[in-house]
Write a structure and sequence with these properties.
Layout lengths: L7 H8 L5 H13 L1 H19 L7 H10 L3 H25 L5 E4 L2 E4 L13 E3 L2 E10 L2 E8 L3 E2 L3 E3 L3 E8 L1 E3 L2 E3 L4 E4 L8 E2 L3 E7 L3 E3 L4 H11 L1
Antiparallel strand pairs: 1-2, 3-4, 4-5, 5-13, 6-12, 7-14, 8-11, 8-13, 9-10
Bound molecules: zinc ion.
The site of zinc ion (ZN) has 6 residues, from α3.
């Protein structure tokens, strides 16, 4: 069962079209696997559409708080929502028009079907280091780097903390760290407050969004940098 969900603040930003494409994609992948968050997004979207047509002084609820804090004009909010709909709907629609062939990636001999939202994203050539394989998602978002990361059975990542944030959306398989065990669909957000050493007994594939380098807390940070730059 999925235990880790995006926070409501993040869902509101998603609905308002305020997130980088990489994080929006992560939320969309999670929502496709999580009816609870999917329903919440539908409700927030309705609310955003309603408030975007309402007078500013009659706005009520969480969404309006965000709106007034940000000073967004209702019309902008509506456009942002259309935009995010376009981004998230496009792959599925295009897929129907073209054919039904699943788009997949092969990492060290294992083929994975990509989530719908990723089927039109460009992927970098797979690379590997030890039991880790990675393919960059070529989104060109500056310091925000997103990747598909595979940990082979028995693989782990040295204990580290985060100089920025690290979002992990588990796509297949399972892994565990100092905070628990994760299953497909789990949406995990960590930052400098968290220190962990992920390991996967049976192997897993993750979608990751990382905003800054990792800091290794055991061993010699400098020697572990190749792994750090592999994940960031
Ligand atoms: Zn959820």
């Amino acid at each position: 069962m999925i235990n880790h969900h995006p926070k409501i603040e993040l869902l509101i930003q998603y609905v308002n079209g305020e997130l980088p494409a990489s994080i929006s994609a992560g939320i969309k992948i999670h929502a496709d696997l999580c009816p609870k968050c999917n329903n919440q997004i539908i409700e927030l979207t309705k609310h955003a559409a309603e408030t975007s047509f309402a007078q500013e002084d009659t706005l009520v609820g969480i969404g309006s708080e965000v709106l007034s804090l940000k000073g967004d004009e209702p019309e902008y909010n509506f456009d942002a929502q259309s935009m995010i709909n376009n981004i998230t709907d496009m792959p599925a629609e295009t897929e129907l028009k073209v054919d039904d062939t699943p788009v997949s990636i092969t990492l060290r001999g294992v083929e994975y079907e990509l989530p719908n939202v990723m089927k039109h994203m460009s992927l970098g050539k797979p690379a590997q280091i030890g039991k880790l394989s990675r393919s960059r998602i070529l989104l060109d978002e500056g310091h925000i780097h997103s990747s598909l990361l595979r940990i082979e059975a028995g693989g782990s990542i040295p204990e580290h903390t985060h100089n920025g944030y690290e979002i992990t959306l588990l796509l297949e398989g399972s892994f565990k760290d100092d905070m628990g065990e994760y299953v497909a669909g789990d949406f995990i957000v960590l930052d400098g407050k968290h220190q962990h050493q992920p390991m996967s007994e049976l192997g897993c594939l993750c979608y990751t969004v990382v905003s800054d380098s990792l800091h290794f807390t055991q061993g010699i940070n400098k020697l572990l940098n190749p792994i750090g730059s592999f994940i960031y």
